[in-house]
Amino acid sequence: MLYADHRNTYELALVSATGSIVARVKPTQQWQPSPQLAAGDKIPTFLIPYSSSGSRLYYLDGNILRFVTPGGVGGVIRMLEGGNREYALAVTPDDRRIAVAEFDYSMSPPAFHVWVEDLAGGNRVDLKPKNIGYGWPFGWLDGKLIVVEAEPYDTVSVEGWWRWLRFPRRAHLIDPYSGAEIATLCSWPVASHALCPDAAHNLYINSWDGSRVAQPQVGRGDCLPTGALSPDGFSIAGWDFIPGSQNCESTGSILITDTNGRRQKISASQANPAFPEAYLDATHLIYTTPTGQFEEYDMNIVDLSAGRAQLIDFGGVGIHAFGQLPPLEA
Description:
Blueprint: E1 2-6, E2 9-15, E3 21-25, E4 42-44, E5 50-52, E6 57-61, E7 64-68, E8 74-79, E9 85-91, E10 97-104, E11 111-118, E12 125-127, E13 135-141, E14 144-149, E15 153-155, E16 171-174, E17 181-185, E18 193-197, E19 203-207, E20 212-214, E21 228-229, E22 235-241, E23 250-258, E24 263-266, E25 275-281, E26 284-290, E27 296-303, E28 308-317, E29 319-321
Antiparallel strand pairs: 1-2, 1-29, 2-3, 4-15, 5-6, 6-7, 7-8, 9-10, 10-11, 11-12, 13-14, 14-16, 16-17, 18-19, 19-20, 21-22, 22-23, 23-24, 25-26, 26-27, 27-28
């Protein structure tokens, strides 16, 4: 699943393991940012306006809930309430229920509500999860709801842009009827795992059951290493840091390591670096490369078993990849 930000609109695409786009939509953003944004301005936070089930990609076109299948068939589910509101959603794998988070900016501070109801509406259960001031539904796991912490506002950068999902946010596994918390992770998960740094900047893989698996260090300990976690929680695709360099300088290549210390490199250069985005599956990694235009990137996919890379017909400003459809099947 691929995403591109076009300010007043955004773009979603489903990609196959061969790099082919099998479905593409270009909906309207939930809110329209002013073209005169200045550094330091506070704006409503970016809430991910889409969700996947076992067979569909759901997304918001303004306040209209729509869907599209990997075959390109789409339709309208219903409308959500308009006004100064922003939503995030998570549909169950069987397409029957939906979790909705609402940030209501008609008041200050914004009112936050989260509930679960039938996909078409009705049978609503309002939740009041503890330890979450604001949050958005991330997905479902074994009938339980995953909610990721959020902030009500973001800050415009000096370039006049804002950076969504800039920092890992804690994820909470909660009961979809009572809102009771079952477990937490340091960040939003890939399948049942999350990639976490400890206080000494050592990486470990955290699971919902609380278990930790140490990940061999990639680069210097002060480089705040991170990367894309594989669906099995075994491998990390991250930056290839130059040993002994200042300011955590990278070679531009991607270095894949696993919990046994094995390494695989996707070669690139400092002039044309590669940035890992997400695993499509255990053997396919999606990554970006700069086009040479300011803030613009191309999307690529590499078959790790064969070592072959393929350019995906999807690029621009603010592009991201989010792995498999569906991303959270247990």
